[in-house]
Amino acid sequence: MFCYIISHWKGQPLIDVETVIQLIGITTTTTGLKIICVKDDIVYEIGIKISDEDFVAINIKNAKYLPTWNYLISRSK
């Protein structure tokens, strides 16, 4: 979606987070996809380890196209 996002920037200066959120939030594609962008103010702890069992429960799979970059996360296995 990044190619669509940057097409909406059109050289506008990204002066603050609110500007970036607004420009990303108005992004759509020709097929009707819309991007939802919200600011996350949560401060996350660093260094938290996740068990192998918890990681498997995420149900993350590499996509067929460019699998090292693209992945799918689904609710059910």
Overall description:
This protein is an alpha+beta fold. Helix content is 30%, strand content 8%. The protein contains three helices and two strands, in the order H-H-H-E-E. Strands 1-2 form a two-stranded antiparallel sheet. A hairpin with an 8-residue loop joins strand 1 and strand 2. The protein is extended, with a radius of gyration of 17 Å. The mean pLDDT is 88.
- Described by the principal axes of the CA atoms, the overall outline is extended
Strand content: 5-15%
User: Quick one: how many beta strands?
Assistant: 2
Mean pLDDT comes to 88
- Poorly predicted segments: none
Order of helices and strands: HHHEE
Structural class: alpha+beta
Cα end-to-end separation: 26 Å
Count of helix runs: 3
Read across the widest sheet, the strand sequence of neighbours is: 1-2
Rg, Cα atoms, Å: 17 Å
User: How much helix, percentage-wise, in residues?
Assistant: 25-40%
The largest pleated sheet is described as: 2 strands, antiparallel
